[in-house]
Write a structure and sequence with these properties.
The protein contains 6 helices and 6 strands. By secondary structure, the protein is an alpha+beta fold. α2 packs antiparallel against α3. The protein starts with a strand and ends with a helix.
Length: 216
Amino acid sequence: MVLMTMIARVADALPLAASMQEDEQAGRSLMDYQAQAKQLFRKISTDPQPPGRCSLESGPYIFHYIIERGVCYLILCDKSFSKRLAFQYLDDLQTEFSLQYSGRVETVSRPYSFIEFDTYIQKARKSYMDSRARKNLNNINTELQDVHRIMVQNIDDVLQRGETLSALDMKASNLSSVSQKYKKDSAYLNLRSSYAKIAAIIIVVIVFLLFIKFWW
């Protein structure tokens, strides 16, 4: 499930809107993750080329975010929550937020200037939590994006070790490229091995047939 939603301006990490789980016990435990989210916004604001879409594991939860038109939309979910639904939810928020506030994002200076957007966030969140609605959403917009290509990082690498998101994304992309090349090379070698075995069998059969023809 989606536990927290935050929206911030990329240029200076200014929080624009937010919505958190209403449960008081969960709310207390989420304060640390809210602090992490704010740190992440600041890291994104200082990164010259942050990934437009990214996932970051943090303990039992995972952050997903997208960046569109200078605004970062971020959510905290259980790791079991569908990654594709998470990014559909983010795209839904981005579309509605842009319709309502795109002309004002650059002019505000007060944190949470669009806190009233929480009403829409709560409505959208409930629609993605409802099992029947979630099933319907899972059946539509299947080509929204290839979320499997969105690399999952660890938030400690960003917040504690000082790695930039763009650098981690580049490393992950390189690792993925190497992995894909290894798979292709392995498939090619396996194919060659299969052909060699087939050729050996054919040669044995031909030799056997010739032996029968000339010696029997």
